[in-house]
Amino acid sequence: MLDVRRLRLLCDLDRLGTIAAVAQARSYTASAVSQQLSALEREAGIALLERTGRRVTFTAAGQVLLRQASRVLAALEETDAALAAVRTGPAGPLRIGAFPTAVRTLLPPALVALGRAHPALELMVTEVDPAHVPAALRERRLDVGLLNDYDVAPGDVDDDLGSVPLLDETVFLAVPAGSGCDSLAAAAGQPWILASEGTLCHEVTVRACAAHGYTPRVRHRADDFVTVLALVGAGQGVSLVPELAAAAPPATVRLIALPLRRRTRIAFRRGAANHPAITALLDFFRADPVEHRGGGPADGGDG
């Protein structure tokens, strides 16, 4: 019988590329990961990996097992969801990971409504950068998480994750109210307020400006949109701000709608969509779409 935990390590290796990366993601030693993969090969009765120095590649048998492992893990999620529906309905922990603006604007109504409708649910929210959500789902630190991407930085949900759309937003160019800047092209000569390097917000700004032939000249760096809008209002530069974070800008800020969209999705492990706790959350947003409720005040940074 093949060990499910070892199958997860095999999928991790395919996704991350090296045993060292798998060890880091799982908080194991590289030696422990190697030993577990060797044990999986003994269980399978055939070589799954080819090792050349520090390089590891999948054999034909390894590729076959990898495809089957993804199906097995999804089937286990489906089984767990089906049993939970029979056993308890919406109950127990539901760990939600979301970027800060969503935590402050989208989730509070959901938490209140779900708490009233399903008091046996243990709702737990953690602020998580969207870039870290997939790993947190795979490692079972989260049950659902919010992902987002932009027209200029599209993203795909991996095969081992599922998702449903939540929100589609306009992205604005925020400029000082007295500024003559009225477009992204005209902002080429302006100082910019950018998010930290390595975040999606930073990458989106760089790509959007590059499409107009320039690199933004950075004056300030800030990840919190309240701070960003305050700096813009103080005449310190311009910035890109998604609609959810721009519902109540300072009077000294002018927002210019751009032909740029940000899309947010609710993601979960493949096979888990019918778990009663996850279904309850999805049903709330289907019954009360975000677009009909509107966003809350500008608050937080989304990476």
Q: What this model shows, in words?
A:
GO terms for molecular function: DNA binding; DNA-binding transcription factor activity. It holds the Pfam family LysR_substrate. With 303 residues, this protein is an alpha/beta fold. The protein has 3 domains: 4-84, Orthogonal Bundle (Arc Repressor Mutant, subunit A); 89-161 and 263-293, Periplasmic binding protein-like II (D-Maltodextrin-Binding Protein, domain 2, 3-Layer(aba) Sandwich); 169-262, Periplasmic binding protein-like II (D-Maltodextrin-Binding Protein, domain 2). Helices cover 41% and strands 25% of the residues. It contains 11 helices and 10 strands. The chain has helices at residues 4-16, 19-26, 30-44, 60-87, 100-105, 107-117, 133-138, 200-210, 225-233, 276-287, 290-293; strands at residues 49-52, 55-58, 92-98, 121-127, 144-150, 161-176, 191-194, 217-221, 239-242, 253-269. A 6-stranded mixed β-sheet has the order 4-3-5-10-6-9. Residues 292-300 have low confidence and may be disordered.
CATH class of the largest domain: Alpha Beta
Q: Order of strands across the biggest sheet?
A: 4-3-5-10-6-9
Could you tell me how far the N terminus lies from the C terminus, measured between alpha carbons in angstroms?
43 Å
Mean pLDDT: 88
Number of helices: 11
Instruction: Report the β-strand fraction as a percent range.
Output: 15-25%
Total strands: the figure is 10
Keywords:
3 domains; two-stranded antiparallel ribbon; alpha/beta; transcription regulation; 303 residues; flat; D-Maltodextrin-Binding Protein, domain 2; Arc Repressor Mutant, subunit A; 6-stranded mixed β-sheet
